[in-house]
Design brief:
5-stranded antiparallel beta sheet; Jelly Rolls; mainly beta; globular; about 0% helix
Amino acid sequence: MTRSSLIVPSAWVVGSGRTIDGGEATHTPCTASELAQPLAAQVGRWYRIGFAVSDRTAGAVAPRLSGGSLRPGTAISVDGQVTDRIQAVTGNDTLEFSADAAFDGAVSDILLNLETAACLDAGTHYLWLEPQNADGVPGPINAPLTIEVI
């Protein structure tokens, strides 16, 4: 999986107190539960995870790799765009978003990437582009474009 907008609910296993609608998975306070999707994780490799938390009024949600030893990410208790990094171990075969019983909010815009040696470091980066015509004559360099790498 590289990107999942939660548009196809059948791709996810939905725990109690959760619903998927309009591209987001909502959890209402009741019991702790998971939102899960199978993952063919590579042992020893790092995975970068990005997602958005919105409409949160209580509790926390955390990404994690499960199957075999549980590999938890950081518990999030605020709205916003979130990034995390988790290393897979033997048996990890599922990406989960674990909500505690108090979590009242939604998760969306899920992105999972396998980290490689060619990856830029996570964080903010800037690009400057210089257009050229067919003869190689350069045009004006644009202002820096800001990109966020998870």
